[in-house]
Automatic annotation (TrEMBL):
It is a multi-pass membrane protein. Keywords: Endoplasmic reticulum, Lipid biosynthesis, Lipid metabolism, Membrane, Methyltransferase, Mitochondrion, Phospholipid biosynthesis, Phospholipid metabolism, S-adenosyl-L-methionine, Transferase, Transmembrane, Transmembrane helix. The lineage of its organism: Eukaryota, Fungi, Dikarya, Ascomycota, Saccharomycotina. This is Phosphatidyl-N-methylethanolamine N-methyltransferase. S-adenosyl-L-methionine binds at residues 124-126, 206-207. It comes from Lodderomyces elongisporus (strain ATCC 11503 / CBS 2605 / JCM 1781 / NBRC 1676 / NRRL YB-4239) (Yeast).
Length: 221
């Protein structure tokens, strides 16, 4: 074994040993590294608003066709909703970054090579899930086209759906996690958990309703 390899292994071992002490400490003292201010609650509100918004608007569209009536085109209406949802997501992410900058840093997370590596992998895998799922579904498949009557011809089963049932939501959650770890911000871990919970709640409403839409159109055919 070369000297450089031996040195690297020693460094990683020391890093891992340090994390075994620092992570439990952080878990016990998590609230000490979070400032529960207006920006914190506003960030949670932005995160909660997005899935609530698109579920309410999409269901209203399905029942009343109010967007289609305005745009006079189902596809154009879906594109309009897509732009709105995408823009809200960009704004939510910017608020999240502002929160991270304003919140306390847990230095052991920031200094750890292992945590940095996990952050990079988490962010990379998350983006791969999001981008490839959007590529597979297209704009209308990604942004609730079925509520506009624009249905997929068949279920998408290729990557990333072959390894993950909800790659958009899980990928987004991984991006939140990766960003929090990269900047060593404990508040980001709490926000990531909140993101995961909100997406799980959204799926409780979305999956049965989407199945109902496809079942109805299958009956018509």
């Amino acid at each position: 074994m070369s000297t450089s390899t031996h040195t690297s292994l020693e460094f990683l071992t020391k890093d891992f040993s340090s994390l075994k002490e620092e992570i439990p400490f952080l878990a016990k003292n998590l609230t000490s590294y979070i400032t529960f201010d207006n920006l914190f609650y506003y960030t949670l509100a932005c995160i909660a608003f997005n899935p609530i918004f698109w579920n309410i608007v999409a269901r209203l569209q399905y029942r009343t066709k109010f967007i289609t009536k305005v745009t006079r085109s189902a596809k154009l209406g879906c594109y309009l909703l897509a732009i709105t949802i995408f823009s809200l997501g960009i704004y939510r992410d910017s608020v999240y970054h502002e929160l991270l900058k304003a919140q306390p840093t847990y230095q052991p997370l920031l200094d750890s090579f292992i945590i940095k590596a996990v952050a990079v992998v988490s962010f990379a895998v998350g983006n791969i899930f999001v981008i490839t799922s959007m590529w597979s579904l297209g704009v209308t498949g990604t942004y609730l086209g079925d509520y506009f009557g624009i249905l997929m011809k068949e279920r998408v089963t290729g990557f990333p759906f072959s390894v993950n049932n909800n790659p958009m939501y899980n990928g987004s959650t991984l991006c939140f996690l990766g960003t929090a770890l990269w900047y060593g911000k404990p508040v980001g871990l709490v926000v990531t958990l909140f993101v995961w919970v909100m997406y799980k709640i959204a799926l409780l409403f979305e999956e049965p309703f989407t199945a109902k839409i496809y079942a109805y159109h299958l009956k018509l055919d």
